[in-house]
Amino acid sequence: MRRLMRACVAGLLGTTALGLVAYSGYPSVASGVPLDIAGMLGAPVDSWLAGLLALFVLGTLVAPVLYVAVVGHVLPGGELRRGLTWGLLIWLVVQLAAGPLRTGGLFSRRLGGPPMAIGLLVGLLVYGAMFGAVMREAPGAGAVERPSADDALRPRRTG
Is residue 129 part of a domain? Predict the structure, then answer.
């Protein structure tokens, strides 16, 4: 449960970082088309605010639950590397499945093409890096040093 809570906090911070990248202007400068993730997610109901809510639900609840339950324990490396790989996996799912289903086309072809796809990749790698950084245990956190049976047999120094 503690790992899931940490993952949700990591997702919240990662989604915030993703939003900062998306709305910083980088994708717009690169392609002439802004990376309006909330606008794209809210398009079916014609509501930018609903899209923003969907973005935070996906990034703060759905993705962290999938990470903890399915993906996190099979990815190689430390938490930072796992987080970056997680961001890349999310990007691949969006580009190969969700994008085409939402009429954005394969690799965001109908939304601005490669610059848009690269902008989203940068944003999701930032999400993954933030996610992985937060998932790392602080030194000494969570690890309670308990005496073992061998400790009882060791001579103790006094004074």
Answer: yes
